[in-house]
Structure formats: C-alpha cells, structure tokens
Amino acid sequence: MASKAIFWFRRDLRLSDNPALLAALDSADEVVPVFIWDEEVARRAGANRNANLVASLNSLNKSLNGALHIITGDPLSAIQKVMKLYQTDLLHASAAHAPYGLAAEKSIGDAAIELNLLGSNYAIAPGRVRKDDGTPYKVYTPFYKMWLAHGWRPPVAAPKNPNWVSPGSEAKKLLTNPQAKSEILLGETGEEIALEKFKTFLKNAAKDYSENRNTPSIPGTSKLSSHLRWGEIHPRTILAKLGSSNGHEVFRKEIAWREFYADALFHNPHTAKEYYAPIFKIMRYDQPGKKFDAWCRGETGFPLVDAAMRELLSEGWMHNRTRMVVASFLVKDLHLEWQHGERFFAQHLIDFDVASNAHGWQWTAGCGTDASPYYRVFNPIEQGKKFDPAGDYIRKYVPELAHLDSDSIHEPWNSPDGYLHGYPERIVDHAAERLESLARLEELKASKSIPSQSNKKVKK
Ligand SMILES: Cc1cc2nc3c(=O)[nH]c(=O)nc-3n(C[C@H](O)[C@H](O)[C@H](O)COP(=O)(O)OP(=O)(O)OC[C@H]3O[C@@H](n4cnc5c(N)ncnc54)[C@H](O)[C@@H]3O)c2cc1C
Is the CB of 350 within 6 Å of ligand 1? Predict the structure, then answer.
C-alpha cells in the first residue's frame, strides 16, 4: 500500500518555494493536502478577509488538481480526523510564529502528535535575528543590518510530478466548502496572481519605488501584502530578485519591516493587543463614540483621512502613507486607544496581519518598537498637500470634493463651494487637538517617569 503523509497548508498557500511541502512529498508516496478552516477565526476575520481566503483556497485547490481537503474545526481535532481517516501519523507543515499558530502547534504537541515543521512565512524565522548578547532587537535599523548579514536560503523549486491524494467518498464526509462573500469587489488572488503581480512591479514600479511609494494616488507600491500574508508568494522569492538600486534597496527594507514586526510579536506575544511601551496604558484616553463612528465611515471632514478610510471600505486595502495618517488621527486627534483602530482595520483589511497591524498602529501611536515619538502628530491637511498635491487620491474616494481644484481640495472650508455636495464639516479642530494630545503626554510624564523619546528624525 502506498505510504501517505499529510501536508497542512497554513500561511503558505503555494506550491513553489515551499520547503516543508517538498519534505512532505519526500517522506511518503502520496501527500494529503489539508487546510483547516477554523470557524472561530473566521468569525473574527470579517467578510473581506474570509472572501479573499476562500478565493486563495480555490486557486490552491486548482493547482492541486482538486485534491485540497478543507476541514472545519480547531487545528487539533481536524488533524486527528485526517490522520485517522488516512491511517497515517506523518504530518508536515511550515512553522507559525504568531500567537494563534503557536497555540495550535502546542495543542498538537500536547496530544503527542509529531508535527514536522520546516521553514516559515519569513525570509528569516522570527526569533533568529538577535543581538550579540542573545537578546532581541527593539530598534529597526540595527535589526535590519543583522538581518541582512544573517542572510537567507535561495528559493526552492515547485515539486515535480507530486502525488496528491484526492478526497474519496469517506474524506468527502469531512470536507467543508467555505463560502464567504464580501460586499466589495476583491481582486483575484492565488500563487499565480502573486507571482505575476511581483513581475509587473519589478518591471514597472520597483525602479522608482523609493520616490513613488509615498504617493497614494499612483500604483507606486507592489500591493503584495495580502499575498505575503497568506504565503501565496514567499519573501525569499521576492528578495532573490532584488538588486542594489535605490528602489530595490528601499523595497528590501520594507520587506524587513514585516520581518521586524513579526520578530517583535514573537518575543512579545501580548503586544498583539497590549502596549509595547506599557506606560501608555495609563494615559488619559477618550471613549469611542460619534467621532469614532465618523472616522470609521470616512466622514471626519478631513479630506485625506476620509479618502483613506473610504479606500479601506471600498477596496479592503489602504496605502501605507494614509494608514499612518488615519492612525495618527485616531490616537492624537480623537484621543482614542490604538486598539480601536487596530480592530477596525482587522475587520476590513484583506492583508490583515497580526504583527504588522498591531505594531504599525503602535509605531504611529508612539507606544511601539522604534516608535515615532508620541509628540509627533501628523497634520492631516499638510500630509494631503505633500503626498496628494493634485488631490487625485481625494477626488477618487471622496466624490463630494471632486469638483474642487488642487488649491482648494485639501481645505474645503476655505472655499465658497467647498460644501456644495454635502461633504461633512470637520469633527475636530486639529490644532487644538494636537495641543490636547501633547498636554496628555505631559500629564503622563508628570505622573510617571517615561523614557525620554529622543528628538530623532524618523523617516517614514
Ligand atoms: C496602522 C498601520 C497598520 C498596518 N497594518 C498592516 C497589516 O495588517 N498587514 C500588513 O501586511 N501591513 C500592514 N501595515 C504595513 C503597510 O501599510 C502595508 O504592508 C502596505 O501598505 C501594503 O502595501 P504594499 O504591499 O503595496 O506595500 P509595499 O510598499 O509594496 O511593500 C512590500 C511589502 O513590504 C511589507 N511592508 C511594507 N511596509 C510595511 C510596514 N510599514 N510594516 C510592515 N510591513 C511592511 C508588506 O508585506 C508589503 O506587502 C500597516 C501599517 C500601518 C501604519
């Protein structure tokens, strides 16, 4: 009888550059490809993320010639069902490094099941890049230098002539066909699309990435985030194609931010929900109410903030520059704790990643790793003038302002016809809220000694 191994697809929904998958195929005559659909996670995920995942699974299933076994349940019980059905205890997967995946591995280990783990969703697995004294990095730039010096393996090829086990009648009783519908139109996804997108980015945008990545109105970035999140493409595959030009160098640094945040979360799992710099927990914050609702709807009366929030609502994605602007607005203008915004992003982003989201929020809020100092408050109007000078991004997402020219679109309150088409008035006075925010910081400093945040220049 042919020997069988189970391959548990996790955040590696691809066939190429997948060492753990090759190891599974090497270990047996046939491989049962499995994905576990955990209802608990799906409930928290939001419609966009679930719909994007279903599309990715459909694409993976196609490349597996219809052999993907999607099993509903928690990881342990799903794995036990498949092992029993196929009478095998050979189990392979890529390693996880975030809290949910680590807990799943522990539950499997606790049940005395051997899980063969190889590789991760990162060029260098979180936890590996350390200072000379063995402690983790807290600051990005030295992490980046050590990360580069550590290096990574070259990509591996896709399996040749793999033998997949297609679900038979018994397996079909276990299978689930997850249906998830998003109210918005999501782009296609899957390994092929991810590789194609990266190729297009290399050809058209990588050269000018360092200048164009900050302009939200143009396709200056790769839009690979959701593909990286589900491992439809591995960062190694990306890094192997990058050279030494300025654009490539800056792009490599962004890939490294993702790895830095994964490393930070790995060492500090509580920071998925809690403050990296705990002192900020006792700061004076407001409770979410009508202003938070206006932020969520993209109706704050600040054109760049509203354009960005409506980009999120209509596309399930938001440009990095404007993620920082809306995050700063929530924390410093509305005086809300970053977790409110983090949760809203988690509900809507198709690229939601627990490490990048929690730490992206905390960086902007001034309480995270390598954080932008708390007293740095983004000015939503000046950010608009600087990064969307012609107003094209605002015009695209905020139709009530589309009639305004580039001189008036950033400050419709100064224009006689600024509110002609029902654009909402500002919910706060930015200058006053900036001062309020700084006053709360002073209050915190007076109540406790907080580590001084140097007046360093933060490049973001
Ligand atoms: C408040 C806030 C929340 C965020 N939430 C997420 C999230 O949930 N998921 C997520 O993938 N990214 C998140 N980011 C980081 C960043 O905004 C997105 O990765 C980026 O906008 C994705 O677009 P792209 O693929 O075109 O990026 P590109 O500019 O093409 O960058 C290439 C890749 O590098 C990585 N990257 C780029 N910038 C960052 C960054 N600042 N931090 C970490 N990784 C980065 C991403 O994987 C990205 O796909 C967040 C940033 C902020 C400020």
Answer: no
Of the given ranges (157-161, 421-425, 455-459), which has the lowest mean pLDDT?
455-459
Q: For the residues 20-36, what does the mean pLDDT come to?
A: 98
254 lines ligand 1 (CB under 6 A): yes
Domain that holds residue 51: 1-120
Q: How many domains does the chain have?
A: 3
Cα dist. 408→93, 108, 121, 260, 295 in Å?
55, 59, 45, 40, 22
Q: What is the pLDDT of residues 366-379, one digit of tens each?
A: 999 986 788 889 99
Q: What's the token pair of residue 254?
A: 């962004």
Q: Is 288 within a domain?
A: yes
- pLDDT band at residue 458 under the 50/70/90 scheme: very low
Distance 214 CA to ligand 1 centre (A): 12
Alpha-carbon distance of 58 to 171, in angstroms, equals: 18
Please write the tens of the pLDDT for every residue from 64-110.
Answer: 999 999 999 999 999 999 999 999 999 999 999 999 999 999 999 99
Mean pLDDT computed over 126-146: 97
The answer for 174, left when phi > 0, alpha when psi is -120 to 50, beta otherwise, is: alpha
Based on the domain organization, do 244 and 334 belong to the same domain?
Answer: no
Task: Say how many Å lie between the CA of residue 251 and the centre of ligand 1.
Answer: 11
The closest residue, in CA terms, to atom 19 on ligand 1 is 225
Whether the CB of 369 sits within 6 Å of ligand 1: no
Both 130 and 257 in one domain: the answer is yes
Ligand 1 neighbourhood includes 357 CB (under 6 angstroms): yes
Q: Is residue 459 part of a domain?
A: no
Q: Supply the residue whose CA is at minimum distance from atom 49 of ligand 1.
A: 225
Edge-to-edge strand ranges of the sheet holding 91-93: 69-72, 30-37, 4-9, 91-93, 116-117
Interval between CA 356 and ligand 1 midpoint (Å): 7
120 within ligand 1 shell (Cβ under 6 A): no
Under 8 Å between Cβ of 92 and 7 = yes
Atom of ligand 1 nearest to the CA of 363: 53
